[in-house]
Hints:
With 306 residues, the protein is mostly helical. The chain folds into 4 domains: 1-32, no CATH class; 55-84, no CATH class; 103-244, no CATH class; 251-306, no CATH class. The protein is built from 12 helices and no strands. The protein has helices at 3-12, 59-62, 73-93, 103-113, 137-149, 154-194, 198-224, 230-243, 246-249, 260-268, 270-273, 280-293.
Amino acid sequence: MTRFEEFRSEQSRPEQFRSEASLPGNGPAAMPAAMPAAAPAASAVPAESPADWRELIPEDVRAERFWDKYADLPAALKGMAEAQRLIGRREAGVRVPGPFASDEEMQAFYAELGRPEGPDGYELPMLELPGGLEPDATVLGAFREKAHSLGLTATQARGLYEWFVPHQAELAHQAELDREAERLAEFAALREAHGAEAPRTLARAREAALAVGGPELLEVLARTGAGNSARVIDAFATIAPLVAEPGLRGEGSGSGGLTHEQLRAMRRDPRYSDPSRRDPDYVRQVETAYARMFPGAIQGPATAAR
């Protein structure tokens, strides 16, 4: 092999494997000085690793405490890989049912999340509620049923119960206080309007309501709070002469011999109540009898009882 061929063979090999003797300018048969020397290869020695492997972690997560349980970088990488596999298994184990999932699939999903086997599995704590209120047993049973049908876990149901029940109890207690304050204010207005006659006015209103609607009407007035209104009390007290018992209103004493029922029948007569058929003489007769029976009361065809 000629020296030129040897040089070409040397040039074809990687730089780091060429012998020092084969480089230009060395050896007995050096190439002419005019030929440029090959540039030295870049060093393949890696940069020196930091003393603490945590310095290789990005600064924004370097301070996390979970790195402390790893001795070195390989252990940390292995731990991250194990955690990722665990997350994958969990995601594969609990799959959220789609919009067309069957009831069986939904029940299995709720069970996987940790829902109790039945409504009785929800343990609800005893709560101290305002105003001495106590939860209704029927309502508690309905709450457990609903929580179970919605797939709530025991922790979720308890948390919802501990927030919702006291909140509703406080609203109910405040509403009761407001109703009592309103009742006292209405009675104060009644006393201001009637003075010492306020209790008697209230008694007449109760008698009228009882005569018109019986105990059922009294119950409605009490339940709705309408019976506490000064206006409602005044209204019933005003109609008391029309509906009270005969012995209480002196029936027939000054009405031309007419009874109350007869007078009511006359007021229902079309000649009195129907504007298109009204008879002036008949209207005058009815109003005269009414004025004699109930002195001071206001009445007319427009307010005639039906």
